[in-house]
Design brief:
The complex is a heterodimer of chains A (about 190) and B (about 250). Chain A has one helix and twelve strands; from the N terminus they run ββββββββαββββ. In chain A, the strands form three sheets. In chain A, strands 1, 4, 9, 10 and 11 form a five-stranded mixed beta sheet that branches. Chain A has a four-stranded antiparallel beta sheet with strand order 3-2-7-8, with no helix packed on it. Chain A has a two-stranded antiparallel ribbon with strand order 5-6. In chain A, β7 and β8 form a beta hairpin. Chain A starts with about 35 loop residues before the first strand and ends with a strand. Chain B is mainly beta. Chain B has one domain: Aromatic compound dioxygenase (Protocatechuate 3,4-Dioxygenase, subunit A, Sandwich). In chain B, strands 6, 9, 14, 15 and 16 form a five-stranded mixed beta sheet that branches. In chain B, strands 8-7-12-13 form a four-stranded antiparallel beta sheet, with no helix packed on it. Chain B is globular. Classes of the chains: A mainly beta (about 190), B mainly beta (about 250).
Chain lengths: ~190, ~250
């Protein structure tokens, strides 16, 4: 018999007292060779920016590995010491956020297929009683994305909401729309 | 089928054996669209959610902690030169999964109002006094038994704009990671006997009454310290092993 879970509640308007920290948006330090910056804005259903949101990301390293005991492939070689896999960024008054990371590698899905490089994303804000979960995929991974077992389950006409848009070398844009014509695909787990 | 280090059942799935976390029961978490809480209207997804299988990215997660915090982060009453105003309280508890297994070494972050119901935040304009000796923010790491402990001040109630004469019950915000992306939780701890709970759409948004009551701390006379502080126990339950998923199908 399993216990009831502690329910989720909104992060509210004042989380920035505690949750952000200066290195939060940096999966790797700025200036790390090969670093990718991902910028974006968070929008509500009226098309207005959400200026009090919190974006968190979690991802594999460039070799597709996790420094975590539940990655059954064992310890990670010490090649990415400054890599923490995690980023936390609050949105600014214009709804914008920014993280600096390394592009993750592909991952074995467990059945012989591979998952395309991706970043898991949690979105929190006032007015959200639970987080919303989405994923960032990469625009230069056309073949991998086409074979990705998760993207394959997303309605074809909405897949593009999960693929970041190239802006310039090392810079991608990933806007998040909670509702509307461009509503981002969100997941449950 | 094997059992992982933390007791989760791990199925054989191709070349990878990964823990799998149970889905919450219906009514355990609030709906994302809840008309009683007006700000949900434009901030909830309207399209059906897509099922995300729990694979490597979902069953791992950030193991944050010791480099982020110091001992004084868990005592919100000694972060300044003087003592804050208000009723001193001890808030303690265990972080565990729904199978009852403690979750050690996980970061617990809290934020709250001061005794007067005022947050130290630039966008807060409730006409209640700030307290120069109280920031209302804390961090702790759970020990090997999943236990954490904060010393703080009883937070106050405060008005908000959701509806006429809307007041939030006193609460402390909690943020937790567990050990996997799937377990991430942000919640609020409430106080027993608060008359505002009955009127609060955020508290009432949780459909299951028993689940709702999980968010109400329990007063503990045993842990209350004579001549010093009242104690409240707040245990936090995150998603645990999906045991039933791997039962043999009936022939």
């Amino acid at each position: 018999m399993s216990e009831l879970l502690t329910p989720s509640q909104t992060v509210g308007p004042y989380f920035s007292m505690r949750l952000p920290w200066p290195e939060g948006p940096f999966v790797v330090p700025e200036g790390t060779p090969g670093a990718v910056t991902i910028i974006g804005r968070l929008y509500d259903g009226a098309g207005n920016v959400i200026p009090d949101g919190l974006i968190e990301t979690w991802q594999a390293d460039p070799d597709g590995r996790f420094a975590h005991p539940d990655d059954p492939r064992g310890p990670v070689p010490a090649g990415y010491k400054a890599f923490r896999g995690f980023a936390r960024a609050q949105t600014e008054l214009d709804g914008s956020f920014r993280i600096v990371t390394l592009k993750p590698g592909s991952l074995p899905f467990g059945d012989g297929r591979d998952e395309a490089p991706h970043i898991d994303v949690s979105v929190f804000s006032r007015g959200m009683l639970d987080r919303s979960v989405t994923r960032i995929y990469f625009p230069d991974e056309v073949a991998s994305n086409a074979a990705d077992p998760v993207l394959a389950t997303v309605p074809a006409d909405r897949r593009s909401t999960l693929i970041a848009v190239p802006v310039s070398d090392g810079l991608l844009r990933f806007d998040i729309y909670m509702q509307g014509d461009k509503e981002t695909v969100f997941f449950n787990m | 089928m094997t059992v992982s280090e933390q007791g989760l059942v791990v199925p054989d799935s191709g070349k990878l054996t990964l823990p799998q976390y149970a889905k919450p029961q219906v009514g355990n978490h609030p709906p994302l669209d809840f008309p009683g809480y007006k700000s949900t209207a434009l901030r909830h997804p309207t399209q059906p959610l897509v099922l995300l299988p729990q694979r490597l990215t979902e069953v791992t997660g950030p193991l944050l902690g010791n480099d982020l915090i110091t001992m004084r982060d868990a005592d919100l009453t000694t972060q300044h030169g003087g003592e804050p105003q208000g009723q001193r309280i001890i808030v303690f508890g265990q972080v565990r999964d729904s199978g009852g297994r403690p979750i050690p070494d996980t970061l617990v972050e809290i934020w709250q109002t001061n005794a007067a119901g005022r947050y130290r935040h630039s966008r807060e304009h409730h006409p209640a006094p700030l307290d120069p000796n109280f920031d209302g923010v804390g961090r702790a790491i759970t020990d090997q038994g999943g236990r954490y402990r904060f010393i703080t001040i009883q937070p106050g109630s405060y008005p908000w704009g959701n509806h006429y004469n809307a007041w939030r019950p006193a609460h402390i915000h909690f943020s937790l990671f567990g050990r996997a992306f799937t377990q991430r939780l942000v919640t609020q701890m409430y106080f027993p006997g608060d008359p505002l709970l009955a009127y609060d759409p955020i508290y009432q948004s949780v459909p299951d009454e028993k689940a709702r009551e999980r968010m109400v701390a329990e007063f503990s006379m045993d842990d209350t310290q004579p001549e010093w502080a009242l104690a409240y126990r707040f245990d936090i339950v995150l998603r645990g092993a999906a045991a039933s998923v791997f039962e043999e199908p009936h022939a």
